[in-house]
Amino acid sequence: MVNDLKSALAELEAHRPGSLLGLRETQWLDAKKAPYRLADDPKAVEELTKDVAAFANGGGGVIVVGIATRLEHDEEVLDHVVGVDPAAVSVDQIRKLIRQRVSPAPRGVRVGWSGADGERVLFIEIPAQTDHALFAVPAAVGKPGAPRPDTVAVPMRDGDSTYWLPRAEIVQLLSAGVRASGMPTAQALADLVRQAVSEAEPDSGPRVGQGLPDREREMRAAYEELADAGLGTPAGEAWVQGAAALQDVRHEIDGEPGWVLCLVPGLPAVVVAEPVWQAIVEAGRRAPGGQDPLAAVGFPRPRAGTDAPWVIPADARRVDLDGGSWGPGHVTCSGRGVWRWQPAPRFSLDQGRAAEIGTGGQKPALRLRALVNLPWAEASTLEISKSRRTQLKQQLPHSAVAGAVTILSRRRGAELRAAHWERGPFGNSGRSAGYTCTIAGPDGTPAVTASVMLALPTTMESTVVACADVLIENPDAWAAALGPGWDTQLGLDELQAVLLAAWETAAELLPDVVGDPASLTWAAPPTTELRITSERPADNGVLPALDTLVGLGPLGPNDNGPRPKLAVTITAAPAMERAERQHLLREALVHMAHAFGYVDAETDVL
After folding, report:
1. Where is the Schlafen AlbA-2 domain (predicted)?
2. SS3 of 350, please?
3. What is the pTM assigned to this prediction?
């Protein structure tokens, strides 16, 4: 409910000028249907300065332009929003006239806009003044030209109207001043003139919040709370970037890095040391399509439970970010002083265009896949050299995915090692690398296959794709290779072990083929897609349910019935400690299980 100046300003700042309708003009509220015609009507200039000075003398108030009034019981009532065309109003001219013609210039006057297009209103806030000054304007003449410097008039607010302080009262005030301090000497008058000239000159630099009248008061309050961090004077006008109000501020000590004052709605204000701010901006610089860097990575977010203004100093090594199109994440500074953005881990069912890359012509009974999308900004300059391809082939027999495949048979009493890797089936070139290891049954039928591939961007795919697959090609052939009495259905623990190994291989081993992944920057968040699919149709043409190939019982019942496919996408940095990867895998599998109908699944069973 609007019943005072504070609540009225809150509604205007929330862009709800209609909330003021029904209010009566009062000591603190004045409404104008149309803008002041400052360009061609000298009386309008006099009216503006009179209105502002009257509120300054009367304890503060707000002038709302663009709301018509109606007369009701001899009182003006705000009736309906007319709206003001911003192109027809010069906010800078309003500010300049107030500074030039109201003496002394009232402090903290704010000129801003409220409401949406078509119902936008202008408001001029005049805060209560604390220096006990009497605010005067040149006497009105109603003619073009500069105001006379030898005249003075003092407007006063009385309820919903403004009147001029009578000459007799002005004389009494002057006489009281003379009695208190004596008749001013020539030197005193000269000092007063110099002071008046100094105050009338333009400021030596911008003030806090200048350029954003709608948020100037908020920025001033934040600046005052954070000033002890070493804030100096503003280095330029404030500006808006997305939802944030920003302003460069000098350090109070010459030569020290400056600051950026950042205010985001719903978050406590923060000042960020300029080198750290530049690192944040650079982290999103490679966002595709010319996207604004901060629109990609977002703005600093405090730790949970923090609701007071805070400081990010120049020696900070991590800053959490949110509010950008990339989602929550953070920038961290390495020991070498290199900053890099990484996403905060999260899960979804989103699927990229490369989800089924390399599956054409294959019909395994079961596929366990980890596919990592690596949207590096410098991907077009990458290549796969012969030496790195050779190194990869030498490393694969000792890789995590090779070990996981070997253990599948070892747990069933057979030593069928994934030791021999050959090129294919994905093709090899300067833009791709692929290797496969096949374990065959006694008659040569492929039983279990492990394969890896890395593909650099093409005209069809803009990211680097790294993939590791483990295929149960033919359960019968595998059973024959194992020997009598062994079940080829995978346990849920085996499923996890294989997916973990495939993910680790795709995320950490394969990217090394292009050089040093840690030196590359992101153009979008990296993701990992984990897929569990039954792909060989039965004789009736229907794909078998996954629970015939994997023991999914610990996940609980599925009200949606058997499924031939489960999948989940993890947004997270590719490189991480093994324990963290295991933890994320369990959480991702539970997220996947819930999404596909296993609503009783919990991490405790994994």
Report:
1. 25-133
2. coil
3. 0.66
